[in-house]
């Protein structure tokens, strides 16, 4: 009975070590709560830009007091403060018309062979 208890404890420890409730990826699908990098909630990126490099940050660029992804943010497309016009989306840091752009047809980086009409490739 002693060996069975030791085996169950070992399995429980292994399960807890690999459980998805822990945070911080250490590679190979394993996770560790000790290696987690999280930004403190009260820190602003205008004071400390390294906040934008933490886990859960929407992007690595600091615009004003917010961390943003300048590749996809329509209010900071390509650089801070560059806003895409109505009916345009930010794809790879450029404002594009998804309805008619041959390189971004209907969604970012969806390429068409011939034409893009109304967000559909080679429509009619």
TrEMBL record:
<comment type="similarity">
    <text>Belongs to the STIG1 family.</text>
</comment>
<dbReference type="Pfam" id="PF04885">
    <property type="entry name" value="Stig1"/>
</dbReference>
<dbReference type="InterPro" id="IPR006969">
    <property type="entry name" value="Stig-like"/>
</dbReference>
<feature type="signal peptide">
    <location>
        <begin position="1"/>
        <end position="24"/>
    </location>
</feature>
<protein>
    <recommendedName>
        <fullName>Stigma-specific STIG1-like protein 1</fullName>
    </recommendedName>
</protein>
<keyword id="KW-0732">Signal</keyword>
